[in-house]
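re: that complex we talked abt at group meeting.

here r the seqs, copy pasted straight from the sheet so there may be weird spacing, ignore it
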Amino acid sequence: MERYATNSEQETEAAAAELAKRLRPGDVIAFRGELGAGKTAFTRGLARGLGIAQDVSSPTFALLNEYRGPVTLYHFDMYRIQDEDSLYSTGFFDYLDGDGILVVEWSENIPWALPEDVITVTLERTGENERAITVEGGARF
Amino acid sequence: MNILALDTSSKACSCALWREGALAGEYFLNAGLTHSQTILPMVDSLLATMGVEAGEVDLFAVSTGPGSFTGLRIGIAAVKGMAMALNRPCVPVSTLWALALNMQQFRGYVAPVMDARRGQVYTALFRGDGAALRREWADAAVSMAELGAEIKKLTQPVILVGDGAQLCLDTLGGELPELLLAPQTLRHQRAASVALAAQLAGDAARCTAGELAPVYLRLSQAERERNQKRSDHK
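got the structure back, here u go
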């Protein structure tokens, strides 16, 4: 388990960009954290660290955003996913079999569908701009 | 008659041309590539290499499920597009039936098994007399344990095909030593078998491009909750 404390959105992004260097194709990152905890900022940092030039935005309405670069980043939002059928119809299981990196917001809704070696990133608000970040799982963290 | 068949229902991807009652050509890929990027170039290349114009295809066949959500939609959308443009009929083929046809001349039971994740499989059962296969069970999504319990009741050899065949053998082989595994080269979904299914199906199975639809075959929520309760009790 690894812990970071960041004092701004920029620092959260930078921490994510550092973490990105240790990711491998096929990794699944599950976020835990409430609205405004910095999940999208963290994903933006991951994308930057992976060498992806595309802009990152919240996938709330699209359910899935795809960012292409040296490795493809699939950014899911499970906020409206309630059961296995609705998850199946996002294509989530097909992406799990692929060689991109998956980032899952609101992973709390699909704990049963996450792979055993999932990397869990917990973002907690400790102040207006301060965040406590915990990274665990995947044998590397 | 020329039948063009596509299968993109799981990780492998293939297309085949069936001509005058026999397999004339087949392209098969199991390279982890994206079906949406490979299937149409494969069809294009197969037809071009064989010197067959798209307009010479009389009938389209496609695996309509069960299978991967994205995969099924890619194959069906591709066939819909071609069949609609050329105004040709289509035959929807059960992925499990096509898999079973890989073992068409088997004497005994043929059980196609596809991994549906989390201990679930898509399966069906067919009985072969050495010439033809006859369906015994409808396509279903069941737990591996349920499949094992059903197989136990059978009195003839059972051969497993499909991407869940190995998993099924590993899980159930201990208590069911009579289980057989199809040869590796016959274990995947093959467009050739989808074409064969269309050939066997006859005119009544045909539909229009517009009528073609995926059959996802998901467990109902109630069934899943029941299974969950059962496994919780163990």
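couple things i noticed - Chain A touches chain B at residues 83-85, 88-91, 93-94, 97-99, 112-113 (CB under 8 Å). DSSP finds four helices and seven strands in chain A.
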